[in-house]
């Protein structure tokens, strides 16, 4: 279960955890979140890596974190930015935006993954599997995932043919069938190989 060992190792520095959601989908933005717990903040019971939780459990934890006024920031990079920068460049951009959006600036950031992002607002330390061992990163994973899922629900209303509310833009069978029937929509990532191949087929 996640703990505070990595945060405490950097004390008394103000440490945030950063994670993202949406690197793999064929459509929609990549969303990052940054979370910094303070001394008297309540830690919701069951806080864990968002991938290990049901959507209902994530939504409940999200509401509890918001109710606790946990210091956090959200950063979004659009499908257009993903196509322009590549997914890692856009992910770094979203992470920087998340930290910049925090009401209190951290002195250090723990990043889920194995690579330090470039040009960050503060020093960073990557932690492989961080969302499963750091409470700050786990909370960030909840904020990022719930925020992105809600964005994709909204996109599903704008572009109802694709079923974004069910698969969040991942390349499921239903998504592939919708693409074959209706082509792409404005939030598809045209730099991704399956979408690029579809465009090339249409253009041929």
Describe this structure as you would to a colleague:
Helix content is 43%, strand content 15%. A 5-stranded mixed sheet has the order 3-2-1-4-5. It has helices spanning 5-8, 55-67, 79-85, 87-100, 135-158, 164-167, 173-182, 193-203, and strands at residues 15-21, 30-36, 71-77, 108-112, 124-127. It is globular. Helix 2 crosses helix 5 (135-158) and helix 3 packs across helix 4 (87-100). The N and C termini lie far apart (52 Å). It has one domain (5-203): 2-Layer Sandwich (Nucleotidyltransferase, domain 5), CATH 3.30.420.10.
Using brief descriptors, characterize the structure shown.
five-stranded mixed sheet; Nucleotidyltransferase, domain 5; 5 strands; alpha/beta; 15% strand; single chain; 204 residues
Briefly characterize the structure.
With 204 residues, the protein is of the alpha/beta class. The chain has 8 helices and 5 strands; from the N terminus they run H-E-E-H-E-H-H-E-E-H-H-H-H. Helix 2 (55-67) packs across helix 5 and helix 3 packs across helix 4.
Our Rg estimate from Cα atoms comes to 18 Å
Helix content range: 40-55%
Total number of helical segments?
8
| Beta fraction | 5-15%
Large-scale geometry:
globular
Mean pLDDT: 96
CATH class: Alpha Beta
**Topology as H/E string?**
HEEHEHHEEHHHH
Q: How would a crystallographer describe the biggest sheet?
A: 5 strands, mixed
CATH fold category name: Nucleotidyltransferase, domain 5
- Through-space gap between termini: 52 Å
What's the structural domain tally?
A: 1
Write the CATH architecture name.
Answer: 2-Layer Sandwich
Structural class: alpha/beta
